[in-house]
From TrEMBL:
<keyword id="KW-0676">Redox-active center</keyword>
<keyword id="KW-0472">Membrane</keyword>
<protein>
    <recommendedName>
        <fullName>Thioredoxin-like fold domain-containing protein</fullName>
    </recommendedName>
</protein>
<comment type="similarity">
    <text>Belongs to the thioredoxin family. DsbA subfamily.</text>
</comment>
<feature type="region of interest" description="Disordered">
    <location>
        <begin position="1"/>
        <end position="32"/>
    </location>
</feature>
<dbReference type="Pfam" id="PF13462">
    <property type="entry name" value="Thioredoxin_4"/>
</dbReference>
<dbReference type="InterPro" id="IPR012336">
    <property type="entry name" value="Thioredoxin-like_fold"/>
</dbReference>
<dbReference type="GO" id="GO:0016491">
    <property type="term" value="F:oxidoreductase activity"/>
</dbReference>
<feature type="transmembrane region" description="Helical">
    <location>
        <begin position="37"/>
        <end position="59"/>
    </location>
</feature>
<keyword id="KW-0812">Transmembrane</keyword>
<keyword id="KW-1133">Transmembrane helix</keyword>
<keyword id="KW-1015">Disulfide bond</keyword>
<keyword id="KW-0732">Signal</keyword>
<feature type="domain" description="Thioredoxin-like fold">
    <location>
        <begin position="129"/>
        <end position="295"/>
    </location>
</feature>
<keyword id="KW-0560">Oxidoreductase</keyword>
<dbReference type="InterPro" id="IPR036249">
    <property type="entry name" value="Thioredoxin-like_sf"/>
</dbReference>
Length: 307
């Protein structure tokens, strides 16, 4: 059947080709971003509401009482002054260094910001460490952090078991603003409670928190409320912590220390999570690439063994 539609002109065909090329590039860029290692600091998941005939954007934690954090607080046992907890053996944590203070003041990191374009330089990073020193900055609401753990946790456990590396976790809260209940801060506090009271339960508890995402209890793609304090307590006890850990979690005992950890990370130019460094050098590959991370880690660990 003959068509009555006019044949597109050469200019129309050229424009259509350009539009298709743009769409292809945009789709590729979107995919690249989704697979990127970084979640930039300041990402805000906001709720949009129509109010009085206008559109208002509200950050859900703006009026959240969970935002209130004391300026001073204790440092958990088995933690260091930089906000790190070091896994140095199967379900084992290193004891706190002798120079670790018993109490911290968050005034030292108030308003902390990094310098754009500057490299990440974590406090306490040791470029001569042997076994190699792995530092991992983690946010419990970060989907790429879960990707990294799902992909590389077993490898890191092997390095630790074989005494090739220690793995230091620094729990940060960049995505508090993406949670209606400050879940990253509450979860990091719960992990500090477990480190303090039951160090052997720390790694199993971390795994349990990531499993909560698979169970649909934590939604990393929306303004998630995350687990309640009661649920955090139940999981901590199930991981091996004593029942007394529940009051530590409920009271937010280590929220000031968690805030300090996040501020120190910002001062160190940590631009997103997960940020992974081995002997001070940053991994820049994809969070879900086992091959890329293993190649990077094996190279750094081999170099550390020669020092």
């Amino acid at each position: 059947m003959a068509s009555n539609s006019p044949r597109p002109s050469k200019a129309d065909r050229l424009e259509a080709a350009r539009a298709q090329a743009r769409a292809t590039r945009d789709a590729a860029e979107k995919k690249r971003r989704q697979r990127s290692l970084w979640i930039k600091i300041g990402v805000i998941v906001a709720a949009v509401a129509v109010v009085a005939g206008g559109i208002g954007i509200y950050v859900s934690t703006q009026f959240n009482p969970n935002n209130t954090v004391a300026k001073t607080g204790p440092v958990p046992a088995n933690a260091n002054q930089y906000g790190g907890v070091v896994n140095n053996g199967p379900n084992q944590l290193a004891e706190s260094p002798a120079d670790t203070p018993q109490e911290i003041n968050t005034d030292t990191v108030e308003g902390a910001v990094g310098k754009q374009g500057e490299p990440t330089k974590p406090q306490g990073a040791n470029d001569k460490a042997n076994p190699a020193q792995v530092i991992v900055y983690v946010d419990l609401l970060c989907p790429f952090c879960k990707q990294f753990e799902d992909t590389n946790a077993a490898l890191l456990e092997t390095y630790v078991k074989d005494k090739k590396a220690t793995v230091e976790y620094r729990m940060v809260t960049f995505l508090d603003r993406a949670s209606s209940t400050n879940y990253p801060s509450r979860g990091a506090n719960a992990m500090a409670c477990v480190a303090n009271e039951a160090p052997a339960a720390y790694m199993p508890f971390m795994k349990s928190l990531w499993k909560a995402v698979d169970e649909g209890l934590v939604n990393e793609q929306s303004a998630s409320s995350g687990l309640t304090n009661a649920q955090l307590g139940e999981r901590a006890v199930a991981a091996g912590a004593p029942d007394s850990v529940k009051s530590c979690i409920e009271n937010g005992t280590y929220r000031p220390w968690v805030k300090l950890t996040t501020g120190l990370a910002q001062q160190a130019n940590v631009q997103g999570t997960p940020s992974v460094l081995i002997n001070g050098e940053t991994y820049t590959g994809a969070a879900d690439s086992a091959e890329a991370f293993k190649a990077f880690a094996d190279e750094k660990i081999a170099a550390a063994a020669k020092k």
